Input
Amino acid sequence: MIKRYKDKHLLKGPHGWLHDMKRILEIMWDFYKGFHKLRNIGPCVTVFGSARIKPTNQFYQLARQIGQRLGQEGHAVMTGGGPGIMEAANRGAAEVGATSVGCNIILPHEQILNPYTNINISFDYFFIRKVMLVKYSKAFILLPGGFGTLDEMFETLTLIQTHTIKNFPVIAVGTEYWKELTPFIEKTMLKQGTIDRNDMNLITVTDDIEQVINIICAC
Output
């Protein structure tokens, strides 16, 4: 049970010197696991989305098709390793014989490693998991999701905006789901000057799987 809440313990505030040194070693080990397992996966695309989406949902089927198409084009498919959209994308990749990667983290609810990965890692720390999902990917695809998906979206957009990563497409699939996002960015953030007009080009919103594939294959 202690392992499950390592992030929670890390963020509780100051600890003793010995406790902090132990935490540093644990963080180093988490990084090592990721570097060791993922360094040779080849061109890879990360797919984000809700863990709560059921296999009967249209977005599950869409994620599965995207996983298949990415695999057919020679890309590994990486997800957070859980159920829902993550499972669907891994499943699609596995069905066409592509590399299917799950970067899992154990949570009190929802996050159980899906059975469609042929490379998987369980991380203790959220921030290390997110580093791996960016470090070994050439693009992000975002399907409908909750706070976690939005966190991953905006953190990645910030990395692009600050030129920390370059030539990194971010594609939101599901125009009906994301339709309220664009007006907020345009009419509130842009109008108030909290972003530049060029920042509007950092994300593509579409329903067209082939457009997604073409954008990724061109980068």
